[in-house]
Records
---
Amino acid sequence: MNVHVPSNGFPALVLNADFRPLSYYPLSLWSWQDAIKAVFLERVNIVEQYDHAVHSPSIEIKLPSVVSLKTYVRPSTHPAFTRFNVFLRDRFCCQYCGSRDDLTFDHLVPRSRGGQTTWGNVVAACSPCNLRKGNMTTAEARMWPSQAPMQPSVNHLHRNGRLFPPNYLHDSWLDYLYWDSELEP
């Protein structure tokens, strides 16, 4: 296809077969190239389209702005333990002072004292708080996390993800996204 489109322009929102986004944070988006490929492979249905089209010598296709999978993908019930998911669980806030800057993660029971890197022992912490707590337990440092750490469900992470809508939302996506606009991150 002879195409004059910015490589990162015209992303497609990807919905599961039940018309829910596969992910809120990060928002499930495909490049227009991946969306077109999935259409030709008959893996998705086009739900909404941009006004912009791409052309080949024999065909013109409007770029999909929203696609839905033809086959339902069962969401994972247990999210992976990652730095990003810890931050998302803790709403990108230091659990000691509430800062959103320079986040790290802190072991409540330090690793040097046998603490493990698990959902129940790790919280988001800004660098200054993490340095202040150092190798101490929360009791020794007299620093208490604002919420007890726990293993989140996928739904918990999705709810928290909705608190942080991306900077760009195309109008055609809004009927499929449910942001908690009254809550600020």
---
Amino acid sequence: MSFRVVFFGTPKIAAACLQALLDEKINVVGVVTKPDRPIGRKQIIEKSEVKALAERTKLNIFQPEKINDIYDEILDLKPDLIVVCAYGKIIGEHILNIPKFHCVNVHTSLLPRWRGGAPIHHAVLNNDKVSGVTLMYMTKELDAGNIIYQEPLTLDSKETYRSLYDKLTNLSYNVLRKHIHYLFSDQVVSKPQDNDLVTIAKNISRADEKIDWSSSSKNVDAKIRGLYDEPIAYSVYDDMIVKIYEAEVSEMPIKGTPGEILTIESTGMIVACGEGSIKITKLQLAGKNPISIKEMLNGNHIFKLKTNFNY
């Protein structure tokens, strides 16, 4: 029997999961992804990675503004299973109840840690030592369903959002390929989450992107890594937004007030924190391209010793 699957997802990591289904010869009868949106300063309309893959493989594509708009279409597809990864919209209980084998979510954290829309960001922002992928049954409450399978992944000390995203993309692909056939069963073993261990990974706001120089160098470093390369941590210097792309904790013994520029050398610009200091190695001024500090020193720049970034 060829079981029927409807897939929900939008970005690169979701496309990897859709590819896993295709590589396992799963009968994907429909793909639901977010509508095309204008991207960047030029507001160019771009299709999602999932849509691009679905088009190449000639799958049936749906891009509703509201999920309720395609309830009847999903019902008509008669899915035995719905698989979801990083779709980006809440899926209502009436759709979750359609398939015989339920709805399964591929979530990029070890639940119940980091329920919500930004688990990868928060793992790095909080200096987590381990992350991973969870296969779980979906319920009305976000990311609260029973756990089917988890696979951990150890984080590197220099981990960034982007590097962890790429690692979890590969892991999600492998986990789904390994377990997809098991999901077509009434005998799947799952376990409830421990609600005492729940943490929430809220979506990153503009306020979250600003660096607080009064915090420790360890925390500032985690913020810069956790927001690289999306959406990028920033500070304000001389009333100008400065995005910080790359930095590291400095071992420099000189102290200063939080946000104070202590040294500017070709290897980096050292800025004081509430505890310790940070060496910035790559940044971007408003309207300019990202550059290394070495490149910055080859031309004119606005930064001066003993002046401060705002916090």
---
Amino acid sequence: MGQVTFTDVSKRFSLRVDGETHLIQALDRISFSIDDGEIVALIGPSGCGKTTALRVAMGLDRSTSGRVTVDGHDVKGCGYDRGMVFQHAELLPWLSALQNVMFGLEMKGMRGGELRDTAERYLDLVGLKESQNRRPHQLSGGMKQRVGIARALAIDPSVLLMDEPFGALDAQTREALQAELLDIHARTGKTILFVTHDLDEAVLIADRIIVMKGGRVHDTIKVPLARPRPDLGIVRGTVEFAETRYKIWQALHDNAAEIH
């Protein structure tokens, strides 16, 4: 299972500037749910609270008030029921791709032959089994992200959290990994919550898109595209893609002054 629920979640930060302390309201009583196996995108202008929501769900930050649950259990810190993929893979540079994936499994307590077999299986899932002995400096940006995804999936989390996972990649690599993520989802059925600034990416990957502004949920848009998704080039040419993308654009540009 992998159901995620935010209930009236707020998050405030203290920021000290020129000797004065300012309170920053990063999240303001947001509520939404994600069903088991669903892919949901968080989109919105910079500073709207997308990444903060993701970090609270992961347990990296604690909410000031409200409640986040995974399968009915309160999030009180990081746990193996959630895996995180960052914008930059953050691999350990002195370890090979295989060892980076094994590291997370070792932290979970896995030992022996199962440890290597599991790491190899997930590297194979992301198409990197032949590169398992390379160190991060020998991998392209896209390959590093694949290792990061394999590392997050290998611990078998209920929920995969992704913070702009393809944002730092070139367009061609980004499109290849978007298709690969959809393929992984089709094979694993993982619940996925991801942050993106890319309207096209949100429509191509997600089942629902949550538009955030000013730390609040501004709108929720359902993506009327069936799964499994066909070739993404075909999806881009559909009426459903164009209409959904325009709905997101409209939501982002409602009360434009509010964004700035």
---
Amino acid sequence: MNQPLVHAVNVHKDFHGNEVLKGIDLDVNVGEVVCLLGPSGSGKTTFLRCINQLETIQGGRIYVDGVLAGYTEKNGKLYRLNDKLIAGQRREIGMVFQRFNLFPHMTARENVMEAPVKVKGVSKAEAGKRADELLARVGLEDRADHYPAQLSGGQQQRVAIARALAMQPKLMLFDEPTSALDPELVGEVLMVMKELAETGTTMIVVTHEMGFARDVADRVVFMDGGVVVEQGPPQEVINNPKHERTQSFLSRIRAEHEEYAEALAARAEAEAL
């Protein structure tokens, strides 16, 4: 009854002989928000893509809501499911990418409606009503008839979140959802994600936004070199990291933030002259 929503056991993944995941163990409970932190190349995005079966694993197991993802197991051996069955499992998971990937020829409402109509067979009337509700939830009710080119990056990413929610997923995955945005647009996307967390949405978030991880995450997981180095409550991992690799990474992130703040202040001062 109390099984985790995501249960990853000894997950391995390599690309052309380069081992990217080296035995990841991770559980995520229903309603929990877990932030994955770590340097580029640490395996965070790859792990997320393995959960959603956009990548196949070479070893271990991933279970989502008690169901083995991507495979069936017989006599201790794994057999890959066919594409149709994998697509059926993937419907239960919403994913928001760095790039918004909206259909440019569709309005915001049409983008949100597309998957429920085409994949779930929901009527256009019902899908349209749900799309309007979701666009209102992400603060874009007045942009429903706008095309992606008419929206800012932050607005496009909020449409992408609404689109993922339209499938009523059990789990939401976010792969650095603010990294492609101008800094002044980051906050509007993080506010939507914070609201999702407050309403009990189960989320795994790959992010470099330390403030979001500290304020919203139930647990922070630091990855480096394809392994989980340490994990725990954000106050412990972010404010008092135990491992040298975590300490080094967080020091570098803080330094980058300070440099950026100084550059902003200098620009503001120059503009005021």
